[in-house]
Write a structure and sequence with these properties.
It is built from 22 helices and 14 strands. By secondary structure, the protein is an alpha/beta fold. It folds into 3 domains: 180 residues, 2-Layer Sandwich (Beta-Lactamase); 173 residues, 3-Layer(aba) Sandwich (Rossmann fold); 152 residues, no CATH class. Helix 1 packs parallel to helix 7 and helix 11 runs parallel beside helix 13.
């Protein structure tokens, strides 16, 4: 080992310290720290070994000059030096050229690995316990060990090297402490947003109140407060997620409410990790992953589009539903108490007959089946549903719909293929247009509707006669004039909408969230309109 470059040392320490106050993916932080140590100290390998409450040791990060160590390479360490660090909580050194009290067995073992020199230091956290916290007293708690080894001869480590290594171990402890606090803050924020989302979502009574839901009311209310698994079926957009949230909200397990989206499908291995998690080192490049079952412990696990779950993962889910136990990839058996609600837009009984879904899992999951009807079969509920949607979208003002607007929504030629989700989109666009014309508006009328909002096939005559741009210019000079007039009216409406948004942004510069609240529209919709209208912002905003 060459003389320690102190300039590089201080640069590295500053980088580690900077990470303490930055938001960064946990595994990447450790990669950077271990890679930096290996390079700075000219070592061959570096590991961070975590020690849990039972004393079990796990290499949570293991690197060798820019790459992860394989499973068998992680085991090639001096266990004696690690145990000595854990026992003494002091930095320890192994030198093949020195005499050690541990005897020849350890030396022969290390020589077989090719290790000629190793250094390890404790990563110690400061834990404030009980009354000691009030008195300003701290109890040191061991977190793990930072370890480097060399497989080259003529390695010389001086006092400066060892002191720098101690300093790095102390800063790593601070780094890990900070990362845990950041992770805890994110979890708490996520749980708070989750509770807020549940609080603002319609209640079960509200969803079941319309006449079109009368046939489901008694059955759903009978089982909502139990732990019985439920299956919600229905076309895309009928409100399966809203129903699941309402059931969870009415139960004794309202939070956490954890959604697993299987809409795009996934392969069996990823599905297992997604549901049950994985532990560090379980497979190549595997990191710690907290599964959805663990996240939902004590609450409700909502499995959206459960019909897409691969068959091997269905077997694991069946075992979990039977006794509540699951096994993370590379981990030990764990228990989680959750209430499972599944949802699908497919006929799950048909999937069982076709062999793509297990029969035994179906009977476990579908103890209570809730079949949500499509919107075209709930035309008598449509105006009440529209009112509920408007209250959810903007509860700050009392929105009303003109009689003509209501008659248009009820037009029998409308198929409402997009169901409640399509209705929500129609109302949201209409509200935005109304606010673009008058920021104090609270009434929706035909001027705020466009034919393309209602679907490409059946278009009510009333809406067809409103100023809306046809798909293509009609033939003939007179028709061309009409098309240009309609196009001009659309441009004028876009300019008015642009001015409304720009005025609000000028009043609340850089704060997109507050502008969205002022205009009474969701933040992601405002960002979408800003991009569509080509409005430039002085600040960057997060992805919607």
């Amino acid at each position: 080992m060459s003389a320690l470059d102190t300039t590089r040392l201080w640069s590295f320490l500053r980088q580690v310290l900077a990470r303490v106050t930055q938001s960064c993916e946990f595994s990447r932080m450790l990669d950077e720290a271990v890679d930096g140590l290996v390079e700075l100290f000219d070592a061959d390998r570096g590991l961070i070994i975590h020690v849990d409450a039972s004393g079990a040791q796990t290499a949570i990060q293991a690197r060798s000059r820019g790459r992860n160590l394989r499973a068998h390479e992680r085991a090639e360490i001096s266990k004696t030096i690690v145990d000595r660090v854990l026992r003494t909580r002091e930095l320890q050194v192994f030198d093949i050229g020195s005499v050690h009290a541990d005897g020849e067995v350890e030396t022969r073992s290390l020589v077989s690995f090719g290790i000629l020199y190793a250094v390890a230091a404790p990563i110690v956290r400061v834990t404030w316990l009980g009354e000691d916290a009030a008195r300003g007293r701290a109890t040191p708690g061991l977190r793990g060990v930072i370890y480097l080894d060399y497989r080259r001869p003529d390695v010389e480590v001086g006092a400066l090297h060892l002191e720098a290594f101690r300093t790095v171990s102390e800063m790593l402890a601070l780094l890990l402490e900070s990362s845990e606090e950041i992770s805890a803050t994110r979890r708490n924020l996520g749980e708070a947003l989750e509770r807020l989302d549940l609080a603002t979502a319609p209640t079960l009574q509200q969803l079941l109140a319309p006449g079109g839901m009368a046939h489901l009311r008694d059955e759903v209310l009978s089982f909502a407060r139990s732990d019985v698994p439920m299956l919600i079926q229905g076309e895309t957009g009928v409100g399966k997620t809203l129903m699941a949230k309402a059931i969870a909200k009415a139960s004794h397990r309202p939070t956490p409410f954890v959604r697993v989206d299987l809409g795009q499908g996934t392969n069996p291995d990823l599905a297992r990790v997604l549901l049950f998690g994985s532990r560090k080192g379980a497979f190549t490049d595997a990191g710690y992953h907290r599964g959805k079952v663990e996240e939902a412990d004590g609450g409700t696990l909502f499995m959206d589009e459960v019909a897409n779950l691969p068959l091997p993962a269905q077997q694991l889910l069946l075992v979990f539903l039977e006794d509540g136990y699951y096994e993370p990839v590379g981990g030990k058996m764990q228990r989680s108490t959750v209430r499972v609600i599944g949802a699908t837009n497919r006929d799950l009984a048909l999937a069982v007959r076709e062999g793509s879904f297990r029969k035994d899992l179906y009977y476990r999951l579908a103890k209570v089946v809730v079949e949500l009807p499509p919107l075209r079969r709930r035309r008598d509920d449509l105006i009440d549903l529209a009112g509920m949607c408007l209250r959810r979208q903007d509860g700050s003002r009392q929105w009303r719909m003109s009689p003509e607007f209501q008659r248009t929504l009820l037009d029998p030629t409308l198929s409402w293929d997009g169901n409640v989700r399509q209705l929500e989109d129609v109302l949201e666009k209409a509200r935005l247009r109304a606010l673009a014309r008058d920021s104090r508006a609270n009434v929706l009328d035909l001027a705020h509707l466009r034919r393309e909002d209602l679907g490409p096939l059946a278009v009510p005559a009333a809406v067809a006669a409103t100023p809306a741009l046809p798909p293509a210019p009609p033939d003939g000079e007179e028709s061309g004039l009409v098309y240009r007039r309609l196009e001009a009216e659309r441009d004028a409406l876009d300019r008015l909408e642009r001015k409304t948004i720009e005025d609000a942004l000028a009043e609340l510069p850089g704060n997109v969230s507050r502008v969205a609240r002022k205009l009474g529209i969701p933040r992601h919709r405002l960002i979408s309109r800003i991009r569509t209208l080509g409005i430039t912002l002085d600040v960057k905003f997060e992805r919607a």
